[in-house]
Amino acid sequence: MKKALFPGSFDPITLGHYDIICRATALFDEIVVAVGENADKRYMFTTEERMAFIEKAFAGNEKVKVVSYQGLTIDFCKKLDIPFILRGLRNPADFEFERAIAHTNRDLAGVETLFLLTAVQTSHISSSIVRDVIRNRGDYTLLVPESVRIENIEKYYIH
Ligand code: ADP
User: Are 131 and 42 in contact (CB under 8 A)?
Assistant: First the structure.
């Protein structure tokens, strides 16, 4: 069974992530979406919330699994015996950043990284823009899958 790990913060999942996962399911038997838990990062949503948004978006899709992890992505790949990392590329800045990580991951662990170019319609979307829209009372629903509906959203408003 050909599996790929799609690691990220998914804080929250956006239509860009959603597009990459959907397209990758045509290439792999299983996509394991790995939600990072990095102690140094301050997330808007808890690990459970970030996972639940993704699980709900792919409910009924047997090819998509959602897990959380801490530590190095390659160590987690080894633990699950997954030889491929999947990443999305939006622009040249993403490429420069991802290139160094992909080389390092292959050198250290022999894990290959596969990149999918983002769809034009979603290439401008990032989780950080979504968080900014939420904090400023904008209509975030245009940027995320329908599964992302935020309860008690007032607690995130900055003014
Ligand atoms: P990280 O903190 O690891 O960058 P993200 O959740 O921001 O985590 O992104 C996870 C992956 O999804 C990355 O490969 C990123 O390039 C990709 N991605 C982010 N936004 C989009 C988008 N709009 N379209 C396609 N891929 C995206």
Answer: no
Q: Strand 30-36: give its sheet, edge to edge.
A: 64-69, 30-36, 3-8, 84-89, 112-117
Structure tokens at 12: 């929250």
Q: Would residue 135 show up in a list of annotated catalytic residues for this protein?
A: no
Digit-coded pLDDT (tens) for 72-112: 999 999 999 999 999 999 999 999 999 999 999 999 999 99
88 lines ligand 1 (CB under 6 A): yes
The verdict on whether 103 is a catalytic residue reads no
Query: What residues are paired with 66 via a beta bridge?
Result: 33
Contacts of 17 (CB under 8 A, 6+ apart): 6, 8, 10, 88
Q: What is the CA radius of gyration of the chain?
A: 16
17 is catalytic: yes
Beta-bridge partner residues of 55:
none
Half-sphere exposure of 14 (CA within 13 A, CB side): 23
The amino acid at 52? A
- Which atom of ligand 1 is the closest one to the Cα of 89? 16
